[in-house]
Write a structure and sequence with these properties.
With 160 residues, the chain is mainly α. 70% of the residues lie in helices and 0% in strands.
Length: 160
């Protein structure tokens, strides 16, 4: 089994413990959606798509496990470190890359390292493109426009 598959098996099992099944379904959709977007963005930018996908699979786990988004990026990075330590799928260096991306993923208005940016942008892609009828959030507008430019898309597609 690939390590991404192994990580997904772990994440799936954790999500299945969620009592609210509607929330569980949106958690699955979001983590897998961001994971796909992260792989695509990483590939485009010459970053590691597998690590990007792995970071995405874990990025909101703290919020889903606790039901709270309070400081979920920073707390989520610590949770990811524990999970990755237990699973033993990544080198120390890879764990740092993944945890850094999760730590910074809520800081959408500032620019961090290349892999941190991949995860932020993948999160924004899923927020903005999962439902095109939804307005783009103000704090994600600039990033979404830059992504549309990078991928040759028209941002106006969200305004019907
Ligand atoms: Fe998040
Ligand atoms: Fe997210």
């Amino acid at each position: 089994m690939s390590r991404l598959k192994e990580l997904r098996a772990y994440v799936d099992a954790e999500l299945l413990k969620m009592e609210n099944k509607e929330k569980m379904i949106s958690a699955v959709a979001h983590l897998y959606g961001v994971s796909l977007a992260a792989a695509m963005i990483a590939k485009k930018r010459g970053e590691d798509p597998e690590l990007a996908s792995m970071a995405a699979m874990l990025h909101d786990m703290h919020a889903y496990k606790t039901g709270s988004y309070e400081d979920h990026a920073h707390k989520g990075a610590e949770l990811a470190r524990t999970i990755l330590g237990e699973l033993g799928l990544t080198s120390q260096e890879e764990t740092e890359v993944i945890c850094s991306a999760i730590y910074h993923h809520d800081d959408k208005l500032v620019v961090d390292g290349p892999m941190d940016e991949v995860l932020k942008d993948a999160d924004v892609i899923h927020h903005c493109m999962n439902d095109l009828s939804k307005a783009v959030k103000e704090k994600e507008q600039k990033r979404f426009e830059a992504l549309c430019e990078e991928f040759g898309l028209t941002p106006e597609s969200n305004e019907k």
